[in-house]
User: Fold this.
Amino acid sequence: MEWISNSRILIVGLGLIGGSYARALKRLGYHVTAIEKRQSAVDYALEHHIVNEAYTTVDPEIVGSADAVIFGLYPEVFRQWIKDYQQYFKPGAMITDVTGVKSCIVYDIQEMLRDDVEFIASHPMAGREVYGVENSDDAIFRGANFIICPTETNTPKSIRWIGSLGRILGFGRISVLSPEEHDEMIGYLSQLTHCIAVALMTCSDNEHLVDYTGDSFRDLTRIANINDLMWSELFMLNREPLLKYMNIFLEEFASLRDMIRDGRVEELRAKMRLSTERRAYFNK
Amino acid sequence: MEWISNSRILIVGLGLIGGSYARALKRLGYHVTAIEKRQSAVDYALEHHIVNEAYTTVDPEIVGSADAVIFGLYPEVFRQWIKDYQQYFKPGAMITDVTGVKSCIVYDIQEMLRDDVEFIASHPMAGREVYGVENSDDAIFRGANFIICPTETNTPKSIRWIGSLGRILGFGRISVLSPEEHDEMIGYLSQLTHCIAVALMTCSDNEHLVDYTGDSFRDLTRIANINDLMWSELFMLNREPLLKYMNIFLEEFASLRDMIRDGRVEELRAKMRLSTERRAYFNK
Assistant:
């Protein structure tokens, strides 16, 4: 399929990201159907015209009429769904996901999948510290990064297709990484930062800190408000790269601690200048 | 002095915070004079009507005409300034600062100061990751926290006076802490967070990360853009509380690492729920 106006899109899992995809795609004129087990999410999405149709159960006809299927499920639920229902996919259907870990899931899915449909993995680098279709908002994609993770079995057609999806959703930069490169990068940029926020937030049980704080503590702990079910699963599935970066960070932080303890001011200042220089790449 | 309309305010050190104080106080109708050694800052402040008068040198008459003096200097420069020029203060003048560390400086200043003027310490918990009067903006004070650090020698009058200053500048919550409590709190909320941001930023030398990142890494490293001269001085002057919290954080982070390494998912999830619960106090 191409991104032509009569495409029918099925979104499985209507959470924050699934809901935000639905909003964008429906507004662009695609026919958007959702399957989501939470009845209140289905009701909300229908009432607010986020989707054209939504169901709490998996109906063979609904799955079979979709030209493209986007999975917004947790990794293990996604794997099980493919096992249970892949026989319903329309021949030639394109399949993608929004999963935050790749190498542990992409090869498995591609191996178990029927030969007449194709799964091309992708990861929208956008999110919020709130959950559910009720908080969905496709403005979060504007200018954000979108990562495509093809394997050797993916066709050029599928890579073009997923790139188009990123573009029409409004993403800024679209990059291609192998599943392994993706997981390495995500271990550092996303998972390590969440671990840091959690550890910083649980360091003190003083309930009055809010009366004294400035913006920096707020910024560093925004993501300390964390969905424990989703993130513990993501951490476990990406344990190796995450542990690698946790150990690098521990070492770097301990070395900073030693400089302060020993009064090595010139080394401390050099480290701060390096930090400032590296941060400059990230100034929008 | 009280905060009456004909008060003359002297601001020594016209950086980001000094400049933002000047903007707010001049708009409120006070006569604001600045002493700042950087000529381009003086020129900018005069051109943009941020102050009524500004000078690069310390003139006895200018210092002597001020009812209140606000110091926006680095701690060691502040201490030296008091030594060199305190003979010029008007009898009865009220003096405060904006310094980020307290116990290492407040007692010294109070002890060396003349008996007919009073120094009451305060700390505006507002800032930006940019510097200089050119970036000043008193909107940063709106709703922010303001901390007053009186010692046993301070008069009730000075505490009322500094509280009024915080209110007219637009701060939200005004708290009173001892210099020691202040430094303990700042070691955790501000200095530890800056150390974390620097260590996170210097963990990897990959220049392409910006193409893949989401918002969480940006949030955690905003303050990794850091003034090395100012922050290394603040860290050294508050070494004990900072080292205490760096060690607590190291332990907390290492324990999280162990949970992930050992696959102790239930403990990991409990830690995330605690983090979420504590972060809720900070939701504005």
